[in-house]
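User: Structure please.
Assistant: Input sequence and predicted structure:
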Amino acid sequence: MRVLLIAPSTLIVGGQSRQAAKLLDLLGQESELEVGFLPHNPVLPAPFRRLQKIKYVRTVVTTLAYWFSLVRKLPQYDVAQVFSASYYSYLLSVAPAILIARLFRTKCIVNYRSGEAEDHLKRWPRTTIPIMRLANEIVTPSQYLVDVFARYGLRARSIFNNVEFQKFRFRERDVLAPRFLASRSLEPLYNVECTLKAFSIIQKHYPEATLTIVGDGPSRHDLEELAKKLHLRNVRFLGFVSFEEMAALYDEADIYLNSPDIDNAPNSLIECMVSGLPIVTTHAGGIPYLVTHEDTCLMVPCGDDVALASAALRFLEEPGLASRISANARRQAESFRWQAIREKWVSLYISLVQPTS
């Protein structure tokens, strides 16, 4: 079977590009599959590459090049699996792939990954719902999004993200130090401001507490200014950190803080589970489908910095709580191994190409 993955290339830093690259590598090892890759963001030939450095112009020329590549490559494949975010990214990258796949009778899977699905479907119904119905399958990495799509009359199934267990070291945390880690894009929907405010409360109890913030984004300057305004000490903004470097940061931290207002199934939480890093998180979006309060994490309402701080302090002050929860989380993380996910993808491709009578 010939399968074409259509997704952002690693030139765009993010969960989609990382998952696409890993899936491409793992599926490429399957003898029954011939797997290709088409980036949403193709690099133009040398004579035209300078156009991709000009604001607005780069969007037009890159999108046109991508659409041309769809027309050229889709007829060569049995299945097209297109990774999807929301809003304009969906409109420019995903909707054309669905329509062109339909034109060439290539089976199409929409691999939808954005926690903003509810708002996207509600605000953009004309460009989402009718076109998505033309896809053969909608696959999400969480049951949460399956339930969201069902409310809009769209049938979806969930296949978890793959986690590279061999990249992370599980460390038991019987005795914790107040070393905190947060790792999200610095955008309003992830509400890192709530994490900083919670850390301000924590630092009143533990003046030596440290907080490492990994990630970059449009809110970084405002967050750095907020840290100064709150008179926080021992706060590091590391900016972008490569996937290969993250394992060491998980290993050196003792508690993970996560305070989004909107989310789906963040890989960072799964990587914490594999590493034995206790999680304190808000209950945004699909997070309650991924972890459970008092079992595999401590969970608090969105936007509640006081509750976030109180939960973090529980890990520091209740003997045995962190080790129990992190052990439970590590066991649950087994469901994210490639061996558990591989069969679902391969079976799906087979069912599309060789449907049973």
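The CA atoms of residues 212 and 236 lie 5 Å apart.
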